[in-house]
Amino acid sequence: MIRVLQAVNDMRRAGLETMLMNYYRNIDRNKVQFDFLTHRPFDGAYDEEIRMLGGKIYHAPRLYPQNYPQYFKYMKKFFKEHSEYQIIHSHIDAMSYFPLKAAENSGIPIRIAHSHSSKLDKDMKLPIKYWALKKIPSVANQRCACGELAGNFMYPNHKFKIVRNAIDVDKFVFNENVRNRKRKELNVEEKYVVGHVGRYCYIKNQLFLIDIFDCIRKKKKNCHLLLIGKGEDQNKLEEKIAKMGLQNEVSLLIDRADVNELYQTMDIFVMPSLFEGLPLVGVEAQTNGLPCIVSDKISEEVMITSNIKMLNLKKGAEVWADEIIKIGTERNAHAKEEIIKAGYDIKEEAMKLQNWYLSLSDNLKYEEENTKI
């Protein structure tokens, strides 16, 4: 068995983390085991399950500039004490430079960078991120991405492998009984439900989605907006909802473990993101057969099934509302088949990732053996 060290921020219930768990649950853990190097001092929502599946979780110092000397000191000691890791796979976009550079310094032979986005998240570390992004090819000797747009963003002029944001298709297929139960539970039985899943942050553009919903409810009776997620913009969302008097018409469902069932309650899925790679939730929503309207800032690779439409953000809330109402509520009866045909079934994709790890490990052993001769 080989152990692969997955470098993440933390294992919260969000897109790339959920993607990783999808793969982790479906690989043969007698052959490949995942362990997780996190960059937060607290446990994530998936940590308990990770430990149950045999994984280990380590907490590295946060990647603040003042922590960099401490970080590299920690990582040097870490790799000295954990010689079992020959593969590190980093998922923190531009900041992957730091764990991969630390791994290179310690002689870790297989260093994988994984791009999950098509732009950099804007915060106080943005200049450092631009610098680190340019350095990724110098420390990563294997490159992969969720799609072509994300890969071309992180590795311009370099080849990369596509590792799809695959899902357990059967968990997301439409089920009338689940729909009725969950709609009753949420008290939206007679409502037209507009749904969204995503971290509460500026990238996901939920503040604009509230404006869109306000336009919808003025044109259509009995409407409700479900915002499912968790994040730093929660207070901003709550303040806007209160200011617009929408407390009874908008629900924030925080850090839910039943997202697959919550898709069943929706009549349409809306994602007005400012940028994305290939969002996992877009795959999930389409698998459920939901009509989907997404921003044209998302990679066109998200257009997997026949039930999704892209819209320009510049058209404004009024036009978005009209398009959402116009698209209707009919679900795609062939969604499952279309998703599987496009290559998003986790059972098949997990075997591909597993075999890739094993081949990298086998090639390394072959090289080491021939070096000794």
TrEMBL record:
Alphabetized CDD domains for the sequence: GT4_CapH-like
Gene3D superfamilies: Glycogen Phosphorylase B
SUPFAM superfamilies according to UniProt: UDP-Glycosyltransferase/glycogen phosphorylase (SSF53756)
Ranges for domain Glycosyl transferase family: 181-340
InterPro entries attached to this UniProt entry: Glyco_trans_1 (IPR001296), Glyco_trans_4-like_N (IPR028098), Glycosyltransferase_grp1 (IPR050194)
Source domain of life: Bacteria
A Pfam family reported for this protein in Swiss-Prot or TrEMBL: Glycos_transf_1
Ranges where the Glycosyltransferase subfamily 4-like N-terminal domain occurs: 15-170
Protein name: Glycosyltransferase family 1 protein
Organism from which the protein derives: Laedolimicola intestinihominis
